[in-house]
Structures
1.
Amino acid sequence: MPAIRLITRILVALLLIPLLPAVAAADGESRPNPWARVELIMSGVNKYLGKYTPVSSEEVGDGWIKHSFDPAGGEGPICIDGSTYSVFTRKGRDSKKLLVMLQGGGACWQGLYRCSQSTAGQEPPGPREGIWDFDNKDNPFAHYSIVYMPYCDGSVFSGDNTVVDPGFVAENGAAGVRHHRGLRNLSAGLDVAKATFKKVKKLTVAGSSAGGVGATAFAPSLLRFLYGNKPKELTVFNDAGPIAISLDSQDAVAARDRDWQFAQFYPASCTDCSAYGQQTAIIHWRLKNDPKIREAFYETDGDVTNIGFASVNLPGFFDPLPPIIPFPTGLSQSMYRDLVLDNHAPIVEAYPKRYKRFIVSGDDSHTALQTPLFYSQEVNGIPLNKWTKDFIADKKSWIDLVEDFKALPES
């Protein structure tokens, strides 16, 4: 069956290619590149769309509805520990404005188990903080409808592999197997989004931490498959997703490649897209091929969690047991800042109208969208929530903000 599906994708792509003009969309142009869709079909990134339907839907309070899937013995949407995967929807005051929010929760690969293993503790309703404060007039998402996806696949919503690992013992007692089914979970959740909110004019996909990686990896392309170009705007908000990685951590890089199997879904013309390269390459490719997408990136240059993950296997790294965050690291604040700026600056330079940063210095906090920091963080006097509002509205006041370096306070 996998061979038949691959042959079918190739035949469809070959039939489409003669009908498609070669168009590369530079910044400021209005037409997407139709070849990009063919490449994505060829990669198989959309192969799970339309495949899974929730087996149950129930109200859980505060307007939220929980949609749960059948794990199907590891072949369906599933958490890393084998437990049931669920997504949540909430109808806002404006059903034509939709926020798809991907939760964070670390990452797991061979020998490093620092990820949320189930949806327990992630399910709404939760505290009315950050973007979840629907009564706050300063919240740009206050009236939006929501699709919220907990994170429990360990592979940043991008993996597609089952790993036999005798050293892995899950919190629920399951042992010996890791289900890295991030792409299936993501696809199933986005199918729920399309089924629940069919006519969307403004669409934002956002994610915190690991969810930020998922939001900037394959989620925008999958949303294009589902909604096409009908939403007038598609925006992407990466809330401290560590997509700039230390390439010196080769053991960790290799383990993620081997365990998650995510690189197979990169489009062929993204020649810099590789498990062994900077993951920012997929952003370059997307902005080049889809001129109707705009993207925002938030981070602190002392982010203790991201510095920790970026430091795995580097000299000076030590991972204590039991697993806790923060953990001692090999990268300094200035080294991590350079890593972030060096890898995001070229995107800003290439697409200055459609990619901007909000970089806070002298701060070791991790993520902001779902916390009070969404209203209190500032760079050069501009609050993060206002910057986000300007981003969504595509105002001229949405500008690239990188705070001058400030050393972290000594503890």
2.
Amino acid sequence: MTTTLNRLDLNLLRVFDAVMEERSVLRASQRICLSQSAVSHALARLREVLGDELFIRTPNGMQPTARALTMAPLVRQAWQSLETAVGAPKFEPDKATRRFTIAVSDFVTIVMVPRLLSLLRQEAPLIDLVIRPDSTTDLAEQIDLGHIDAAIGTFSHKATRFRSQALFACDDVLIAKSSRHLGKLSLAALSKLPIAAVSLHGEHNAFVEGFVSERGLSRRSEMYDRPALENALSASGQSARIVVSLPHFLALPSLLEQSELAAIVPRPLASSMARTQPLTVHELPYNTSSVDVSVLWHERLTNDAAQQWLLSLLSRATEHLSDRAAERCPGRVPPLSDLRLNKRAAIDCRLSP
């Protein structure tokens, strides 16, 4: 059997399958885009290798021998398996029953995951999602090992084995409990505020300029533009007081409600929190950098159909974060229903600098 397979050109089986289906050398040649002579030559070679006539020419067409009839279903099945193996794999999300694991901060969880779950319910009800914190110190290793399908964050450097795609960009704002009535902030007023900020990884031995680096991946740790804050205040002879540095955002609403603290946070998160909490959003009296939030994955997954679908899903789940026009209004962010009813408020918001 091994000797026969070593002598066999798989293209001969393709010809055999076509003749078996068509029972005609002419129609088989047209089906597989070969000349009649090429089909006849291929059949002759296959007869020699297998030691069987395979097809007998009759007035009613090419009639298969007993050996050919035995071979036909097995060859058809094998050929279909080969086509599946070398063809582009298909991913049908509405039928798929797999699990994706993504690493995100609680900031991204709050502003993206509700929409992501809504899309999953509509398009892929059998797919499960595992959310892991991106603050884990072995994130790069977990991606390398295939334990994480995608990570979402801000990356300043990545090794060539990683790929990334921008999802949205955001800058900083300040939030405080609504009863404080801070009004329009000045640098002098800001310098007197006790401020809470978030640093995802705490004190880390690879922590440099707001980023933590490991295994060829540098990702943002300080979740506010500290250099912009310090430079703006030092230029006016003042300094900021970061009273508390937290490893996550979830505790901020209760801390702000129970104290005189204010917090510097990403704009999309401030908008989301102010819709459900008694918080006021304030524009900072200095310009902060706009940082790109991206999805990152291992290069080995780039051509995987399921991974491509996941990346598309994450992109659609963050589309609303790309339009920041309605978020640039200072003060309490109104509910979406109020924006629909109050056209003037929506117009003022779009026109604000």
3.
Amino acid sequence: MKKIGILFGQERSFPQALIERINSRKVKNIAAEPVTIDKVVQAAPADYAVIIDRISQDVPFFRAFLKNAAISGTAVINNPFWWSADEKFFNNALAEKIGVPVPKTVLLPSKEHPDDTSSDSFSNLAFPLDWEGIFRYVGFPAFMKPFAGGGWKHVYKLSSPEEFFQKYNETGQLVMMLQEAIDFDAYFRCYCIGGKYVRIMHYEPRNPHHLRYAATHDVGDEMMKTMEEYVIRLNQALGYDFNTVELAIRKGVPYAIDFCNPAPDADVHSVGRENFEWVVETAANYAIERTLAHKDGQDNLSWGGFLREAVAGKQIGGKAEAPRKRAGKVK
């Protein structure tokens, strides 16, 4: 029997519905259940062919457990090694390299020194920074937000350099990024599962939280196809099996605003019944697909195009580089 485990925290509607949906399929020798952890021994395999991770971003113990499970063959959704390495500023840089429009963004050092550091630790950092050049590049209005954060925590909308410095002084040791504000005509939140299944949801982030999915935007079929292509391109490059991408359309151009959401909201009370049904059905099908493809004791993780192309010696985006010279004799 191959088991699919769901690792989750406080959420209830999605994990339980997903378990019930998978088990209702009655696929021979496949069963789903909540993950149970009674001990974690180094290099010992977990009792699951597939684990769907919904909580390790908040619990370091779970992230370490998942890496240990993965090294012995569990297919973890999402890849815990890549998830640990990824952050939003890198996402933007990668998006530019693969041809997906993103807002102009710069990285900012933390306002306060990290613990156990002093001014001597920043010998390579210019003082002051080129604030004039930064503001000229990004422009105002702009958003300042953590480079690796989520959930709209510590996010500021700024209208001037004076307001920027006032809020920047409140950010403590957080590493922030300053990002161009996109004055959008339409906004969408898109599930992507397996790097190929896409659900484009009309969304209005300016509405109260419970009304954000109660939106309708007038866009044509061609724009919908472009957004689907961008969503797939981003997730295949990053290697996420379960993610959401937020797209803001300004003057006919869809900008990827936020696409590092590997444990996205899937609660029926916020996403709505139709979207909930799609994500449960699609996640169940994909989990079964990955279980059927699972090979005991082998690497069953998804690795994105960015890493695979790097290993193959290619430029980001797929253009081949000249072969690297290696020490030793030429054969």
4.
Amino acid sequence: MASTLTAAKLVTRDTVVDRPLITVDNDGRIASISTREAAQAASVTHDFGDSTLTAGLLDIHMHGGAGHDVMEGTTGALDTVSRFLASHGVAEYLATTVTASLDSTFHALEGIANYIERTPVQDGAKPIGIHIEGPFVSHAKKGMHPAQFIVEPTPDLLNKFWEASRGTIRLMTIAPEVPGALDTIRRATELGIRSSIGHSNAVKAEALKGIEAGATTATHTFNAMRPYDHREPGILGLVLDREDLFADIICDGIHVAPEGIRLFLKAKGSHRAILITDALEAAGMPNGQYKLGGTTVHVKDGTCTTNEGILAGSVITLDRAVDKLREFTGADLPTAVRLASTNPSAMLGLPDTLAPGQPASFNVYNAAGQRTQTILRGKLLN
């Protein structure tokens, strides 16, 4: 049945609404957003008092959680991942693949596409597309990506990935300096895929060509990128300097020091910065040995490394990344939440999350700025 929600504040993409009144229809979608003053006669189903409502979170770069990797591509695995994400305030996500054999990649793309086309599990986040992180990465900045499965990008191979995913790829990480990258970025743009420059050793001129070809964002800033040099700023210098580029970052205090997080936010500003997790199947699990694609990853006290000691993804959750950003930078709650919700949505070119007709997914933050509850497609989860 239809319901109404109210709280002290509502954080939208551009402003903060005092004393909001949100009507949710029978299908769990937003019917209207107004204020209690503008609709004084309306009854309220859920009054969250002095709390703040925000959009549900959107993780555009996550590989798994709760013991499962999205590369498994099965309903059971993805149901588990989706429920885990929702328990941490994530309403939607991009299931993110990793460099693997082409057969494994096609299998994963087809399995994830099948899952995307299903009715979402009732208490789980919804995958709204796929992020392919690899195999179009640089050998020089491959990180944990297996060298034997890295391939040069071509529009033809991207077309095959697109067909296997049945048109659900929304984001592609690519190193702009490798042969074939520029034509592949152009083809991605034609398909409506956002291209993100990352796992790259590009110098400034090479990174510029990637941007000119259509790249609009950058993957886990600072990590797997050519270091900044004052005479050759390279990819990192462009990412931090360009006001027209989005960029994302892993805010766990392990991948990037707090000083780097502060520099990133100052450079990108509150509308172009994005929080991601790069979370593995080990997220939500105890210390131990896990997998990212086919690579063994050892997890101890929040740090994930390969057998060779290379940093490999994270175990942070997106709600915790919001908290960490506030801790490291002093950002207010509206700014921090936008980096994990409306900013990634805007980067993907999606409609405003908090608009009539959109799923009624919200997080509830108490007066102390702590997430206390999640509303997923009109249903109160906790």
